[in-house]
């Protein structure tokens, strides 16, 4: 048992191309998507029949039957059936949180190898029974006599046949994530042009990454998709400018389908291990997982924006690591909406915000925008909620490996419920 | 894969009656290789002309494998193989020895029998008469191949003077089910330092092999057979075929490497992957290939270039890394995949034929390259004929049926037949075979 923390290495990753809702993966389940992703990872790293110490993954939109989603996916994959697994869920932070959990166990010597991943299908959504109908059935189930059962069932009404469909809204405010973001974007004065520029860059960067073969060892095709279905290689600011706003109201509405992520299906997985395990298996580390941090904000009262938590998490992580915001070679800020990225960056530059909200003496400052999401992000790739963390960790690890030993990358992911998960990676 | 309805039908009771009464082709189920089965079942006749040094060597080798070996045809009972050593013939008159050994056996050969003729390369003959006699062996062998029925094959092995002991792996290959779909071929055995495997059931144990175009068809079969023979396999295919590639890699416990073989750094990435993950590279199989069929009159520059680029020029580029420093280990094996289209030509496939004929030329050049020979690296090629794959399943029924039957074995080959020959080329025990192009075509009439 290691007495001092060990470095957790990122050996590589795999994901399937992300499909648009009701697209290529319309009839695939979360388990199908995650199994295919694990199989692609196993093939890339020669892990067929290999025992790993654990696989951690999750889904945001999840059927109750999938209580053991990750373990079932492992059993359906080429990995050894002796590989344990568990599910986690932290909204869009699920994938990155899974990586934090596995790497922490590696650091403590509790495991030597593991996979962190995530999956989501917005197409194969868990439609539930109407809540009133469910209560009716439960009451009938509790009844002891046939007469009592019959009486309980008389509470049934035809409108109870309407199913309960998962909503992309915050339970406590009833506002969709886009509506929340529109409020924050307006507060911070984020322009339509700036958002469209960020969106166009995301598409162009990801398309270039595919073209130069960067994705060759990050992706395995699935069900006929070989690239992300949402990717528009020819996207430009001019084309994006023609889209009508979908969130926000009136003159100040800036958020369109082009600068917001669409509902997507997909899965990702990252192979993590101790340095010893990597060396024994002939797998050179791409990067090390240095540290992670979560934060949450009070968005319910309206005091803070729903997707602002990463702005709070990052300074805590920087302080712990003795780093400044400028000490990074790459920044991966999840593009839930183009405005999310822009508000986060603006907040870190804002002296008042940094002082009053973050309790800092000076603002974190600005970043070199040429280091931001250089191979595209969620606006281009799409965002199957729990799969985004794994997509970013694998891609950033590869970028840092290419950049060289000691290079640094920062990951920032916002999540529903006013939460944020952030992490630092270092090139190996 | 298209079902071979005719082939299945003729193996039924009714089918047998119909084909024998009207003289239709009657293909048998070929005997294929299994690591757990004996090399060949039944009696093997090993005889020769004069003092027949190779017959003596081969007979002793086969006896050590506990095979039943005789030196003359038994009065009753059948033979499963005939090995005739004609290595000491000096004049066409001596060919009578071949007739005398083989002719009496032909009517009593078991199904899936093997006839192996051994000679010397005619180029090394010391007189015109000897050269004529040695060259005659090829014509005789091909004729025997066409005369044999019920899955029998005939092949000629030319062993260079002084390299007699290098013939063992080739004899094993020809007697076994590995050569099920190989007939009428000439295999030249020359210098080299063969290394016998510790276990003949896993002749590639501990070796690292890379196979391009491994996601499906013949490439997938190559990956499977090399893995069955003990190799750790790196399966390579274009990123767009990654899902099928992953299934192949996982099924054989190998690794999947998604890359386009036409990428400028493809060879280096293959070498880096093999070195980093598996500590080196012993076997490289250039199998990736495409077709873009059109009559030459209608072939534009794009169709011309893409086929030559994938099938031939990418191999030249990748070889710079694979045969360069840090690439294939000394004593390693490079195998290329040609095609009978490259030998016979094919209407509508001028680009493909050009690329595959080019592969033959490349194999000959590299196979005799002094530096590669010094490093003990062998370079050989297979030239598949009609192989039952997804690709040939798309050929219209009539054309397909003709392609399938126009060979001595009267049936199409399977991807595994191509793979078995490649696996044999990849054996260290086969170090004396380099620069050979072996057709896996059932002795197709095309380009014969």
Assembly state: heterodimer
The gyration radius over C-alpha positions of chain B equals 21 Å
Q: Which regions of chain B contain 5 or more consecutive residues with pLDDT less than 50? A: none
The CATH class of the largest domain in chain B is Alpha Beta
Distance between the termini of chain B: 26 Å
**Intertermini distance of chain A:** 24 Å
SSE order of chain A, one letter for each helix or strand: EEHEHEHEHHHHHEEEHEHEHHHHEE
Which architecture of one domain in chain A does the CATH hierarchy give at level 2? Answer: 3-Layer(aba) Sandwich
Number of domains of chain B: 2
Please give a structural write-up.
The complex is a heterodimer of chains A (428) and B (448). Chain A is an alpha+beta fold. Chain A has helices at 30-45, 69-75, 94-108, 131-142, 146-153, 177-187, 192-211, 237-241, 275-280, 309-321, 338-349, 351-356, 378-381, 388-403, and strands spanning 8-15, 19-20, 54-57, 85-87, 113-120, 245-247, 255-256, 264-274, 287-296, 330-333, 408-415, 419-427. In chain A, a hairpin with a 3-residue loop joins strand 11 (408-415) and strand 12. The two termini of chain A are 24 Å apart. In chain A, 54% of the residues are buried. In chain B, strands 9-8-7-10-11-12-13 form a seven-stranded parallel beta sheet, with helices on both faces. A six-stranded parallel beta sheet of chain B has the order 2-1-3-4-5-6, with helices on both faces. Chain B is α/β, with parallel strands linked by helices. The two termini of chain B are 26 Å apart. Chain B has two domains: 29-189, Rossmann fold; 208-440, Rossmann fold (3-Layer(aba) Sandwich).
